[in-house]
Amino acid sequence: MGVAETDEALMIRVAGGDRRAFAELFDRYAPKVMRFAARFTGDAARAEELSQEIFVKLYRTAKRYRPEARFQTFLFRVATNHCLNEVRRGEYRAEAKDGLSPETNTSVAPDGPEDALWGRELERTVSDALAALSDRERAAFCMARFEGLSYREIATALGASEPAVKSLIHRATLAVARAVDGLRAGMLPARSRA
Known about the structure:
With 194 residues, this protein is an all-alpha fold. It contains 9 helices and no strands.
């Protein structure tokens, strides 16, 4: 078995029209892109469609990719722009749903009914908090906290400076933390002391 090709090498092949290389990148990144779109929009069903649209755009813009940038950064720039454009068109507005689909839920199985209730309320609270953020705050927060991108990568994806990204993530983190603290105080005071 050979050594796996880097994402960047695969993307260069995609730019040359290699569909197998594109399929490999799709297999590697489709779940991340769908998770990002689901968290960005709050709608797991729409996120699947958005993910497919994002990969179509990726294929069409492959010739603009420069190997100096990490592929993941380029991909999330395409994904962020697509999600932002979707919201700006006014045809869709991110709203919190009663939780995301199981594919986007990363929580562990509850030990009992109280833990299950806590998990559902926590997921709903975080979804509501994400929906209340500005589009750029939500994008930066999701890329940092859920996808593990660096400030520099997020800055490139958003076309912003690193200090601006830090500010976006800081504001978003405070808003989500306030929402979770409110849940702890209102629903299960004992949990906040645990």
